[in-house]
Batch of 4 targets.
Target 1
Amino acid sequence: MHNIEKSSVNDDPILEVKNISLSFGGVTALSDISFDIKRGEIRAIIGPNGAGKSSMLNIINGFYHPQQGEIWFDGRRRVSEKPYLIARQGIARTFQNIALFKGMSTLDNIMTGRITHMHANLFWQAIWKGKAEREEIRHRERVEQIIDFLKIQSIRKTPVGRLPYGMQKRVELGRALAAESKLLLLDEPMAGMNLEEKEDMCRFILDVNAEFGTTIALIEHDMGVVMDLSDRVLVLDYGHKLADGTPDEVRNNQTVIDAYLGVGHDCNRFKIL
């Protein structure tokens, strides 16, 4: 894992989060959060359960709309938009809980990631001639490349519901890659995996970043994974930004140490250190 070269990081941010606040009724999920994600970097977002990590990803890809703040993506201030429009702009997502079509094959699940690139209308799709046929052949070629990249050729026709958990996670990554996004959001990609599966997923994430130049933001509880993969780390706690910096800076940040190890906190809550 350490021998894989990362993509070069550009100081120009691809995403800027400015003073974002999100509440559900009287419960504050995020309070005045600001950070950026630079082009080409792997950006980790960490924190205990309930810190607001998934809520932040849901804001970035349009599932949630904040009460305050701004999102800038690819140099443009984003207005309130639906998730499918944000996906078309170049943001793809995997989920903490696997969201695949269990009765469909690996290949067909990954094909659904190409939807934002399909342009043939319903008439041509129904008769499957001309433009629709050429388009599907082109998309299937791209999906086959992803299947080869993820080394899942042997399960390409297998219904994903029959696959072990770690392999389903790999298929979900494949579906996100099929969108050919500029920014890939990974919500706990290693959750529930054994050590071997985690090592495989780490290699694929590094390869996606290095070979495709994809910018990646990930939520992860395994600190070994975070320290090995990420260029910078954002730490959230109870919806507030606790720290932001390189892995070494965060690891040695006294505020983080006090918050996660201090006697004033329930130590069972802070599983990530």
Note: Residues 60 and 71 are 7 Å apart (CA to CA).
Target 2
Amino acid sequence: MKYFAYLAVMVLLISVVALFYLKRPDGQAWLTTEQVTSKSDALKEQMVALSSDTLDQAVKLVTDTSSKVVEKVTSGAKPSTTVIYKWQDDTGQWHYSDQPNPKGNSEQVVLDPNDVTVVAAEDTSILKGSAKSGGIPLKKSPTSAYDPIVIQKLFDDAEQVKSQLEQRNNTLEQSH
């Protein structure tokens, strides 16, 4: 396969070079250096024109977009606020909705988008059941790796791994 590729490349090169030496019926060569040069110059001019047009369009797009952003930021228009309702049911569970409680009184809460911060949940296992339903107990998440709770958990885990390794070694020794 490798030799076939070499052979194909050599045939292609010989064919291109032969175009410079073979003559057409009118006596001219099929390919001349002037033709190659003029065609490459024309292609180069087209590429430069296309790239400068593209650059001009990109500059215009960036300028328009930046002016729109600056206009939005400096316009001073306040984002609209959202009203939600909250109420507590008979079991003490809080509910939040865009509709007031149909069975009773609801407290109206106004949400200002500037005051709302969305943070990713660290532990989503609490979403499967609530603490009131006897599900997963809520734990305080450690603040850093130097937290004593984290360090104690690491030591406990290390002791468990050590005891498991000792049990496996004993089992292997007994099987021999």
Note: The chain has three helices and three strands.
Target 3
Amino acid sequence: MSDRTALGRQRLETPQTSRFRFNYDAEAVGRVSESIARFLGTGRYLAIQTIVVVVWIFLNIVAVGLQWDPYPFILLNLAFSTQAAYAAPLILLAQNRQENRDRVSLEEDRSRAEQTKADTEFLARELAALRLAVGEVATRDYLRRELDDIKALLEEPGETDESGVRRAPRR
């Protein structure tokens, strides 16, 4: 147990450090794997693969002197198995990278939507405040009516009080 603590591995779920250190650019590996995965999903690749398989089978059946892979085509099967063994992890790596990009994009969209919602709520509150303020402002029609009433009062003969201010006539 003291050997494990000396190595820095105290628990079973802590991975051991490897003696071999490979320095590689994970981003470059990801870009290459995405380009390969993109190519494997094209019609061009399927056409090339089909042509290679047809030529392979044709040469191994017809050309008696060139039969490097007789009828069960075990070498061709091995080539397909090897290709599938490399293609599957590359496709998974490309999918994981796309998932990470989608996650970042989704987080940005969420934050942008939250900001837009906050801005919209702020503008709605400001608009409501403006509507309330406009409701308290005297309108042109209201002022015109009031001025007409005052003009009518001034034009009518009426009594004046002791300070000389005219009073409205009694009705």
Note: Helices lie at 2-7, 26-40, 43-62, 74-136, 140-155.
Target 4
Amino acid sequence: MRDSVTLDATDSRLLAEIQKNAMLTAQDLGDRLNLSASQAARRRQRLETEGYITGYRATLAPEKIGLAVEAFIQVAMAAHTEQNATDFLRLARARPEIVAAWTLTGEADYLLRVWCADLAALNRLVQQFLLPHPAVARVQSQIVLDRIKTDAPLPIGPS
């Protein structure tokens, strides 16, 4: 696999364009990059094959599908054992409200991003699933009041 430092300017522009709109056709992409459609398609295919592009997805409007509350939940583990970690990760992967999870340094061991229909659903997630879990010592929730900059494209190329 190539290093990101070996991406040429056209590769970088292609990646930037498809982060903005993954549904661009090869023709649209070629027009934006000053390439033929077939050249643009080959470059995109190569970047997919080499692992620079890991997938495509639709971004949904949470409120349109009944999700009104976004929150971040910090979780501190009761004990740092392999079994606790395995058990907690199983819980995190099983709960559809948990849309992202990260391990952290510092006070909290995990940071969860969650979407719930309402505050009652968030409370149920915390009270019925997270706090009673034997691996969990403490949780701290922060409810999102406003989404200022969400899921922005990754910075590509020189800053």
Note: The chain has a mean pLDDT of 93.
